[in-house]
Design brief:
By secondary structure, the chain is mainly α. Among the domains are: 34 residues, no CATH class; 40 residues, Orthogonal Bundle (Arc Repressor Mutant, subunit A). The chain is 47% helix and 0% strand. It is built from five helices and no strands. Helix 1 packs across helix 2 and helix 4 packs across helix 5. The protein starts with 16 loop residues before the first helix and ends in a 22-residue tail after the last helix.
Length: 108
C-alpha cells in the first residue's frame, strides 16, 4: 500500500479546496502535506506574509540613508515601515541639529 498513492489524480479528489491545492502544488506534494498535517486544521498565510522577510531584506540592502520615500514606493509599504526597518537615516558626515557632541563649542 506504500506506492498506491502514486495512482492518485486530481480528478479523484472532491471538487473544491483539495482539488485546487492538488492542482496548484501537484498530487505528490498534496499527499505529502496530508501525511504531515492530515486531520489537522492549518492556517495558510497569504503570499505577501511569506515574502515579507525577503522584501524587508531587500529594503535594508537598498537603503542608503536618505531614500525612505523611494523604497516605500518601490516595495508598496509605508515610509514609516521603511524607517522602522532602517532607522531615521543620515548622510555620512552630516551633523545632527540637536547632537551637542557634534556642535562646534567654539561658536558659543
Amino acid at each position: 500500500m506504500d506506492e498506491i498513492w502514486k495512482e492518485l489524480t486530481p480528478e479523484m479528489l472532491p471538487e473544491g479546496l483539495y482539488r485546487r491545492i492538488a492542482e496548484a502544488i501537484g498530487v505528490d506534494n498534496f499527499y505529502k502535506l496530508a501525511c504531515v498535517n492530515g486531520g489537522m486544521t492549518i492556517y495558510i498565510p497569504k503570499p505577501e506574509s511569506l515574502l515579507r522577510p525577503v522584501r524587508d531584506a531587500h529594503i535594508k540592502a537598498e537603503f542608503n540613508g536618505f531614500n525612505h520615500v523611494e523604497l516605500a514606493e518601490k516595495y508598496d509599504v509605508t515610509e514609516r515601515w521603511v524607517r522602522k526597518l532602517c532607522g531615521v537615516g543620515f548622510i555620512e558626515g552630516q551633523i545632527g541639529l540637536f547632537d551637542e557632541d557634534d556642535v562646534n563649542q567654539e561658536l558659543f
